[in-house]
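Dock cytidine-5'-triphosphate; give full complex structure.
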Amino acid sequence: MDKQERAKPRVVLGVSGGIAAYKACELLRRLTESGHDVRVVPTAASLNFVGEATWSALSGNPATTEVWESVHEVPHVRIGQGADLVVVAPATADMLAKAAHGIADDLLTNTLLTARCPVVFAPAMHTEMWENPATQENVATLRRRGALVIEPAVGRLTGVDTGKGRFPDPAQIFELCRRVLARGPRAATADLAGRHVVVSAGGTREPLDPVRYLGNRSSGRQGYALAATAAARGARVTLVAGNTELPDPAGVDVVRIGTAVQLREAVLAAAGDADAVVMAAAVADFRPSEYATGKIKKKDGQEPEPVTLVRNPDILAELSADRPNRGQIVVGFAAETDDVLANGRTKLARKGCDLLVVNEVGEHKTFGSAENEAVILATDGSETPVPHGPKEALADTVWDLVAGRFAATADGS
Ligand code: CTP
């Protein structure tokens, strides 16, 4: 049967021998419950952490380790050939080394050699092992060949250690797998590989006193969708996030900020070597001119003191003017309530960015919603309408336009 005709996408979940194998059970559950046919291929070492019975019971399929079982079905070739996605989670340093060098000494490594579909590795190991030049070179090799190697998260590791190397949240790895599957064949998957992109998201809060601030209603969802879709397309992503409650997308480096001034510092620091910067954050244009170190109190019989405001820096205009990295693409957002397109055109010229995503905001529109509708204006005069749909779809259209500009720069056109 042709892959397209099958009712359920086929996913191979490769599990290598790290303690995070137990977290892969949640990834498996999410994959099966959302209608994927999952075949778990554990390494022999991983069975020390989670046994074969767990994988078979949760997947509803046999979970074999060696190529010598059911040989008549030629599993070392068939499993990889039939897959729509292979995700290795957790991927140990040893597994990355084997995959990078084409070693095929068990069922999982054979499967990696026969799979033509997108391949995702979710590494988990101690910081020293992740940062070792051998591992880093293996990761670079795998990425160059089109695999998606998720950056590990930073946090508590096995034992008392803390650092980079933590297995990302299984729910977020699942989201990334879903996005990769939706993009189809391997060639279409990692079109932002080798690129560093910076996305700002959420809203800034400008403190008035220790308990009050001036803020806005941005949920951060559009910026998070931009960060997550870029990671699923192979980019290294820095997400500068202001005041959101959303979970960190898998593989994304998240920098948290509070105020517009902090946002500016974080974005400019990350933008130095970035190929693209997308300013999806809702930045406060003004901040209170003075910060009261103690809570502002009511005074009997007196009117309140007026709050005076000062201008915040315009980060998008500054980024567009400076561009430390030649050829850097800068994208802005315009939230408008009236004369949406006309205001958008004026704003594109005023800010000096390459693309401006213009959307209408209001009481029940855009903020906090999972959906969005926009027109993307470009400096060449083009307009790309994005119909009402998930914020993820708008994010993918933004990256399509950015990737098109990267390709045009590479061609010299
Ligand atoms: N932006 C920024 N710095 C600011 C204000 C806005 O970088 N101080 C960015 C936003 O992240 C967004 C774009 O500029 O990408 C447009 O934001 P918007 O609030 O629509 O525009 P403003 O410049 O605030 O213009 P106005 O308030 O006049 O509509």
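Observed: The first helix runs from residue 21 to 33.
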